[in-house]
Specification:
Chain lengths: ~210, ~675
């Protein structure tokens, strides 16, 4: 099963995959959560560990087939059960992606708050024509995702694991320019909002219930 | 028990049953695609929707447990409308290729569409197309036809025990397959074809061969292993086109092993269709009288002790019995039915049968396998053992060469000395069990110390309480379909096969015997080969008498349990070939020892006289055991050679499967898989 070939999608599946020391450190506490006969429950966390390791070692967050087989062996489950999980969730990439995986939420709240502008800015800044493609420089892959659960600060652009919130066209251009320069801007709201509080600061509960004693 | 009303009919049904089962109990047929009574419930096709009072929406009856007092309606406007809707969705992506689909005429979707389909489609978008998968030489895939019922996935995982099929991706891009390209590594893969409700999985060798309504269907018994699976032989004209399983809960349930199903194309190749006589070292075509003359000429003046007969693994009881009587008339006691030399003590029936019975496996609570790989020797029995492992705890240990049996086995080692080792921890497990069983295979018996092994296994069984007044846990797993029948009718006396070889007899009559080294036959021994395939035996023969294969004769077979079953003639033997008992009967007249029967009924009556078990068709009474005296053999004289696998290549074990191109392809496919795995 360890053949080395460029698949029909034009990418190479690595022949081998082994967890490195950092991954092993992450795996141990995950496996400890499940009883010995139920280790298969750890399949999703382990696939995340795989993606993180691929990001560290290959600058591409994806799950090669060899890694799925490794996970299957580690958890004592048939490989096909791992393939099923890895292909079901779009959080797992089954083919290589760019160094920065741009995950653009276009579900209703983000769309109402201008995700179309964000998408257009992403396309023009990276030169990517369609969702699912990777930029010519190999830095960016753009994916359209369903709601990522941060609607309060819509629209959301998720870069790898980090949410960049309250995006608009200009902020998107700036973010991508910064990523291209090799900078990683701080995640969170891009307009200075405190977590998900109202823009410009809190509007309620600004004072204590009772006036301070004189 | 819960009392429910189905369409006004009151039925009582066990708690925990599904609404669908309740409807069936009331005689109402519920359409279904994903539901299968032998698989887990998936509930994803939605075709089995019914209306239940006090429930606001249609309910999938396969997954809904019954409740006391439930009022179920299976044929209301709401139900019909819901099912029509489901059908419309199913047909959105299903291609309209019924005219070129092999499932046509026996397709669940086609049938249900007659009841719930619309006469036109409202769907104008592009249909989904799915790439076909390569599942090996037996199962052809047209995955665009798949309606994603997941029956195949559940069958592979639950019944076959090879979790290799799965549903990858999701939504519109969901596909059923192996994800990585590979052939299925199961001996039961042909059953996927039967359980697929549409034409997504069909038979590769049978592709575009025939339509079901063209076929003549005959009930038969499979002889390619000793399970005695009940089969349906589908023939068109003189040709057997396919073999399907027939339901028999006690034997094969509704499954069939791949060899039994797909070796059918071997019935058309390398057939013996006329007599041959060797003159000047070369075989020449001959007529029946010429062939008989040649044998009779050789027999003249020969003493009975100088002739012998060997019965092959596929022989029917009638022909063996006729041959036995012929040899008795010729004054010869030399009969052997064991080409492999397996030890057998025919003095008591339970010494050589599978006494627990196949269905009985499901009652057992501990199992010890000795020198057997049931996955290759009897895939259907292996499936039954696996079925048992899916339920309550069922500890299994094995003495023999380790192999993947599709369930968890504790391998104790492969040395025969383990049989005498009282310190094995597993013996305590057997002692603690209420219904323990032991299965001893041909790998343990077909060796020089076979009789000792048999005696030692019996002794072990007795010492751990396997032989009880109400439970017989001693089982011999045979591979040859003819073996138990042959032992029942006494086809084992006088010289054994090794003594007949090397000039031990002057005339050797092989009744379809091809599974021994024919080079060991003495150079001056005159060999008569009576059989249906030009295999090893025919190559050595001096006279060839063309016989009938199992689909071409009415025959009685006794399976490894000792179950007597009858197979019916589906097609006639090719050319000059004749049913085997008739050949023996005709020859007996030629040598003036006319056997006293002219019809198979008369023969059978005599056979039943000789051993009354032959009168007990299909039924297998189960016995406990009161007399625990063991079979003959010195239990202490065990050899030191380890138990080796008996079946080297599951797909080619007899003349029919060796002649089958499909089985050759399977052999090649397995070899390729092993080569990749070894890398």
């Amino acid at each position: 099963m360890a053949e080395h070939h460029a698949g029909e999608d034009g990418f190479v599946q690595p022949a081998h995959f082994a967890f490195d020391a950092e991954s092993e450190a992450a795996i141990a506490p995950i496996l400890a959560k499940y009883p010995p006969s139920r280790q298969a429950s750890a399949v999703i966390p382990l696939l995340y560990v795989v993606q993180k390791q691929m990001q560290r070692t290959a600058d591409s967050r994806w799950v090669p087939r060899a890694a799925m087989d490794t996970v299957a062996v580690r958890l004592g489950m048939p490989p096909i059960r791992v393939y099923e999980v890895a292909t079901f969730y779009f959080m797992f990439n089954t083919k290589p992606v760019g160094k920065f995986h741009l995950q653009l939420c276009t579900t209703t709240p983000c769309w109402l708050r201008g995700s179309d502008d964000m998408v257009a800015a992403c396309k023009s800044a990276t030169g990517i024509a369609h969702f699912g493609e990777t930029s010519a420089d190999g830095l960016f892959t753009m994916t359209e995702v369903e709601c990522v659960g941060a609607c309060v600060n819509a629209p959301i652009l998720q870069v790898n694991d980090d949410f960049y919130e309250d995006m608009d066209a200009k902020l998107t251009m700036d973010l991508i320019a910064a990523l291209k320069r090799g900078e990683i801007p701080p995640r969170g709201s891009m307009i200075g909002r405190q977590t998900s509080a109202p823009v410009g600061g809190p509007t309620t509960l600004t004072t204590l219930d009772s006036p301070p004693a004189e | 028990m819960a009392k429910v009303t189905v369409d006004g009919i009151e039925v009582e049904i066990a708690n925990g049953s599904s609404v669908l089962q309740a409807a069936e109990a009331a005689g109402k047929e519920i359409p279904r695609f994903c539901y299968h009574e032998r698989l887990s419930i998936a509930g994803n096709c939605r075709m089995c929707l019914v209306e239940i009072e006090k429930m606001p929406k249609p309910v999938a009856s396969c997954g809904q447990p019954v409740g006391d007092g439930m009022v179920i309606k299976t044929d209301t406007e709401m139900v019909r409308k819901a099912r029509r809707g489901v059908m419309e969705f199913l047909l959105i992506n299903h291609p309209l290729d019924c005219p070129i689909c092999d499932q046509g005429g026996e397709c669940d979707l086609q049938d249900q569409a007659m009841g719930y389909g619309s006469d036109h489609s409202r769907y104008t978008e592009n249909k989904r197309a799915v790439k076909d998968k390569n599942l090996g030489p037996l199962v052809k895939t047209v995955m665009t036809r798949c309606i994603q019922c997941t029956r195949c996935i559940r069958f592979a995982t639950e019944i076959a025990g090879v979790p290799e099929l799965g549903a990858t991706a999701r939504g519109e891009t969901m596909e059923v397959g192996t994800y990585v390209e590979k052939a299925l590594t199961s001996e039961l893969s042909g059953n996927l074809i039967d359980i697929c409700p549409v034409g997504a999985l069909t038979s590769k060798p049978y592709a575009f061969v025939a339509r079901p309504w063209e076929l003549k269907k005959t009930d038969g018994i499979d002889v390619l292993d000793a399970v005695g699976a009940n089969i349906r032989i589908d023939a068109r004209g003189p040709e057997v086109l396919r073999i399907l399983p027939r339901l028999n809960e006690d034997v094969n349930e509704e499954w069939l092993a791949d060899k039994s199903r797909f070796a059918v194309d071997g019935l058309k190749r390398r057939r013996l269709d006329s007599c041959w006589v060797r003159r000047d070292g070369k075989l020449h075509k001959a007529t029946w009288p010429e062939a008989f003359d040649a044998i009779a000429g050789k027999l003249r003046g020969l003493d009975g002790s100088r002739i012998g007969a060997v019965a092959g693994n596929l022989a029917d009881a009638e022909s063996m019995f006729a041959l036995k009587e012929l040899f008795a008339a010729l004054g010869s006691p030399n009969l052997d039915c064991r080409q492999d030399g397996a030890a057998a003590d025919a003095t008591r029936r339970d010494f050589y049968t599978f006494n627990t019975s196949i269905a009985g496996i499901e009652e057992a609570d501990a199992l010890l396998l000795i020198g057997t790989n049931p996955r290759h020797e009897a895939p259907l029995i292996n499936a039954r053992i696996r079925k048992r492992t899916q339920g309550a705890r069922f500890p299994i240990a094995a003495i023999g060469a380790p192999a993947d049996l599709t369930y968890k086995v504790e391998w104790l080692g492969d040395s025969p000395s383990l049989l005498a080792d009282g310190s094995l921890a597993f013996l305590q497990v057997l002692r603690d069990a209420k219904k323990p069983m032991v299965i001893v295979g041909q790998g343990a018996l077909a060796r020089p110390d076979g009789a000792s092994v048999l005696a030692a296994v019996w002794k072990l069984a007795e010492s751990v309480g396997i032989l009880l007044p109400d439970w017989h846990g001693f089982n011999v797993l045979h591979i040859a379909a003819a073996r138990v029948g042959a032992l029942d009718l006494g086809f084992l006396s006088g010289k054994a096969l090794p003594e007949m070889l090397g000039g031990g007899v002057d005339l050797l009559w092989l009744l379809g015997a091809d599974e021994f080294d024919t080079a060991k036959i003495g150079a001056d021994t005159f060999v008569v080969y009576q059989g249906h395939h030009g295999d090893r035996g025919a190559a050595r023969a001096d006279v060839i008498l063309p016989g009938a294969a199992y689909t071409e004769k009415n025959g009685t077979y006794v399976n490894t349990e000792g179950r007597v079953q009858r197979s019916l003639l589906a097609t006639h033997p090719p050319g000059e070939a004749r049913e085997d008992w008739k050949i023996v009967r005709a020859f007996s007249e030629r040598v003036g020892k006319k056997l006293p029967y002219d019809s198979i009924e008369a023969l059978r009556a005599r056979l039943e006289q000789a051993n009354p078990v032959f009168a007990r068709l299909d039924i297998l009474p189960r016995f406990g055991i009161s007399d625990t005296t063991g079979p003959a053999g010195d239990a202490t004289a065990l050899g030191s050679a380890p138990f080796a696998p008996f079946v080297q290549n599951y797909y080619q074990t007899d003349p029919i499967s060796r002649a089958s191109p499909t089985m050759a392809e399977c052999t090649e496919s397995v070899r390729a898989t092993l080569a990749v795995a070894a890398e």
